[in-house]
Amino acid sequence: MVDIVRKRFGLLGRNINYSFSKGYFTDKFNSENFAGCTYENFDIPEITAFPEVIKNTSDLKGMNVTIPYKETVIPFLDKLSKKAALIGAVNTIKITKKGKLKGYNTDYYGFKKSLEPLLQPHHKKALILGTGGASKGVAYALEELDIPYTFVSREAKENAIDYNRINATTFDNYQIIINSTPVGTSPNVDAFPLIPYEFFTENHIAFDLIYNPAETQFLKKAKQQGAQIKNGLDMLIFQAEKAWKIWNK
């Protein structure tokens, strides 16, 4: 009888019952016959509970990290990959054979792979709605694609404009509008970022990192004006597969 090596993986976040990751990896383990591999949600109220999760979870080999802990988890890690350090956000953690925690960012990779096929020569600049952990991976991907970007925040900051500043001229100058906020995520499916959707055109891309619902109000309103739309599902799949490679290398 062959001993099955037990490997546990999971998702760190808050209020993550909706999560894509658990279903995705559970299906992957079953369909690709990764016997002994399991995936579970680690839903914690505060990041200060993270060390207890690590301490009390044996056989843990890797984790994904979601809202709201992509930035606050960093002080609890032993090491960061070069790109995660540059981005300033972590969505993948590898637990080494020595029990060390190393943080990676695969969000930027997933976003870049998902956006790239949509790009046309007239897509020159991007507007990123939100300034949280997810927005940092998006910004890094845009830098790799040589696409200048501007952040939009609820309050004007040093490196961001506020929503009140967005007008027709903004839409003339920015042809890619990316929602990196959780606004519109199930169950709050009637919510949407407060921007003037009437200025979207067929020359615009509206990209929403949200995947549930598949078509958010943000995407619906942009589509009504002729914009090309894309949700976050492909991005999630790309980043999940990249995380799997990291855990197993």
Automatic annotation (TrEMBL):
Residues 11-93 form the Shikimate dehydrogenase substrate binding N-terminal domain. One of its GO terms (molecular function) is shikimate 3-dehydrogenase (NADP+) activity. GO terms for cellular component: cytosol. Pathway: Metabolic intermediate biosynthesis; chorismate biosynthesis; chorismate from D-erythrose 4-phosphate and phosphoenolpyruvate: step 4/7. Pfam families: Shikimate_dh_N. Keywords: Amino-acid biosynthesis, Aromatic amino acid biosynthesis, Oxidoreductase. SUPFAM superfamilies: Aminoacid dehydrogenase-like, N-terminal domain, NAD(P)-binding Rossmann-fold domains. It comes from the Bacteria. Gene3D superfamilies: Leucine Dehydrogenase, chain A, domain 1 (3.40.50.10860), NAD(P)-binding Rossmann-like Domain (3.40.50.720). One of its GO terms (biological process) is aromatic amino acid family biosynthetic process. PANTHER family: BIFUNCTIONAL 3-DEHYDROQUINATE DEHYDRATASE_SHIKIMATE DEHYDROGENASE, CHLOROPLASTIC (PTHR21089:SF1), SHIKIMATE DEHYDROGENASE (PTHR21089). This is Shikimate dehydrogenase. The lineage of its organism: Bacteria, Pseudomonadati, Bacteroidota, Flavobacteriia, Flavobacteriales.
